[in-house]
Design goal:
This protein is mostly beta strands. About 0% of the residues lie in helices and about 50% in strands. The chain contains no helices and 11 strands. Strands 2, 4, 5, 6, 9, 10 and 11 form a 7-stranded mixed beta sheet that branches. Strands 1-3-8-7 form a 4-stranded antiparallel beta sheet, with no helix packed on it.
Length: about 110
């Protein structure tokens, strides 16, 4: 059974930084494609960034140059480094893992406000 647990969210001022972590249980992390999504109230869930099992990354235009997705296969963990945060980045951030099946974490809240 694969389970995902996100952490690292919180309240930050505009221009600040946060690093989200997604810890994955089980032994198949290295072959999973990992993604970060976000959902603000009243909006649909949207892709923020993803990283394939081989390390190829892709980003939403709104976060390019500010966010960095990475993974550490020795720790079964994916990360999202978020810099230069803006109020419009405020959302619940979800981690997703996929290969044959799709798995979601419970989400972590990120609030960017002064």
């Amino acid at each position: 059974q694969v389970q995902l647990v996100e952490s690292g969210g919180g309240l930050v001022q505009p221009g600040g930084s946060l690093r989200l972590s997604c810890k994955v249980s089980g032994s198949i992390f290295s072959i999973l494609h990992m993604g970060w999504y976000r959902q603000a109230p009243g909006n649909q869930r949207e892709l923020v960034a993803h990283i394939l099992s081989g390390g190829v990354t892709n980003y939403a235009d709104s976060v390019k140059g500010r966010f960095t997705i990475s993974r550490d296969n020795t720790k079964n963990t994916a990360y999202l480094q978020m810099n230069s945060l803006k109020p419009e980045d405020t959302a619940t951030y979800f981690c997703k893992a996929a290969r044959v099946n799709v798995y979601w974490g419970q989400g972590t809240q990120v609030t960017v406000s002064s």
